[in-house]
Design goal:
Strand content: 15-25%
Oligomer: single chain
Structural class: alpha+beta
Number of helices: 15
Shape: elongated
Order of helices and strands: HHHEEHHEEEEEHHEHEHHHHEHHH
Helix content: 40-55%
């Protein structure tokens, strides 16, 4: 009975245990997420947003980690730090790690330069450089000074985007490595955006419902009275068409009507196609990458030419700002990891797994985890060993024989062979 009473006393229900006094003191309320990244108006209306989303998803697919290196600058282990917690699990109150990384990438493509702001830290960064980060946000830089930047960042306490002035040594400033292609005023991307906007304007004009007719009247229009008479005749035909259920009007037998609502000939579409192909080439994109039919070589080229420079720019900004000189001397670093098995066909996984385990590159459990299987409880599954080689018992005192030496030893004749006489 005591356990039942304890459960009742400590029970909590999201709908019943509401503090009504706090319901009206939590700041403004929105019908959409106020912290969500908003692209520029010209980018939202064009196919550019699909390119940004594709690149952002691929950047967010990599795992960012705060790690420790060994004496040879190789990955040794993950750091148990607040920064690693932000990169791995909990960047801030509203975003998960993948959403946060996609926010960084898409804001970088849209604005050209972004600021990664450590909102919550263990100590005041203005007083000490040795601080641990508790939460991160992506901010838009709205003002530059010699040692400080003015950043517009979302404040989760007030529920609004606010502008704050921060020291450059405290904020990780990331510049788009493809700035000359995507963000310069006369870059390929900006020219494509202008052409797409012109093409949209032409399409809207051609589909606006206008008839574009010319009425030829049976008299010469030179005097003011004739012009007034022609204008009255035009309004009369407009009134007939507008008031008719099926859009039918009548004219005099001596009047002639010429229809002009045919598609206007221009080379905007060809220019858009040319600029799109040029942009794809400069970004390292292909149609197969965009529609998901690219092979392994195309994806490798895409990651090396496009994704890797973007990710490395983000990592370099974080290392420069979030890692102190003392931390770097202690072999602290920030790395990005990509799952190499993600783009490998299932028919090649078995061969790759055999080569990796046979050459003692990975253990069996590491391969099982990479392909989504549970780790084996066999202790041998966590060892770097070649299962094709004989297992020598260390208690027997025997040493494994080198295969090259074994081939050079003379063979003992069999009990039954060419030299035996069975007669």
């Amino acid at each position: 009975m005591s356990s039942i009473g304890a459960r009742i006393r400590h029970a909590w229900n999201a709908f019943l245990n509401i503090d009504q006094r706090r319901a009206f003191d939590e700041g403004p309320e929105y019908g959409h997420r106020p912290d969500r990244v908003r692209l520029n108006f010209s980018n939202e209306r064009s196919i550019i947003s699909s390119i940004f989303v594709r690149l952002g998803i691929d950047v967010a697919a990599l795992d960012f980690r705060h790690v420790r290196l060994d004496k040879d600058d190789r990955y040794e282990s993950e750091m148990d730090s607040g920064l690693n917690e932000c990169l791995k699990v909990y960047p801030n109150l509203d975003q998960g790690p993948r959403h946060f990384k996609q926010d960084m990438a898409m804001s970088l493509f849209d604005q050209g330069v972004i600021a990664i702001v450590p909102v919550d830290t263990t100590v005041d960064p203005n007083n000490s450089g040795s601080f641990d980060i508790k939460s991160l946000r992506v901010g838009r830089i709205v003002g530059w000074k010699s040692h400080r930047v003015r950043v517009e960042v979302y404040n989760e306490e007030s529920g609004r985007r606010e502008q704050i002035s921060l020291d450059k040594s405290f904020v990780a400033i990331v510049e788009n490595p493809l700035y000359a292609v995507m963000n310069e005023p006369n870059s390929t991307l900006q020219r494509l955006i202008r052409k797409l906007n012109l093409l949209d304007a032409v399409d809207e004009q051609s589909s606006s419902g206008k008839l574009d007719m010319i009425i030829q009247l049976p008299y010469v229009i030179k005097s003011e009275s004739r012009r007034l008479q022609a204008e009255q005749r035009r309004k009369d035909i407009e009134r007939q068409l507008k008031g008719s259920q099926y859009g039918i009007a009548y004219t005099d037998g001596t009047e002639r009507i010429t229809q002009l609502n045919r598609p206007a000939e221009n080379n905007l579409l060809k220019q858009v196609e040319f600029l799109t192909n040029m942009l794809y080439g400069q970004l390292g994109l292909t149609e197969s990458v965009m529609n998901g039919t690219a092979d392994e070589k195309a994806m490798l080229n895409y990651h090396n030419r496009t994704i890797e420079p973007i990710v490395e720019s983000i990592l370099e900004a974080m290392r420069k700002t979030f890692l102190t000189k003392t931390g770097r001397s202690q072999k602290q670093w920030i790395l990005a990891f990509r799952d190499v098995f993600k783009y490998v066909p299932i028919t090649e996984v078995a061969e790759i797994a055999d080569k990796f385990t046979r050459n003692e590159i990975t253990s069996a459990n590491e391969i099982r985890q990479a392909i989504g299987m549970k780790p084996s409880k066999d202790p041998k599954a966590d060892e770097l060993r070649n299962s094709n080689m004989p297992d020598v018992n260390p208690d027997s005192g025997m040493k494994p024989i080198d295969p090259a030496m074994a081939r050079s030893l003379p063979r003992k004749p069999d009990s039954v062979g060419a030299g035996s006489n069975l007669n």
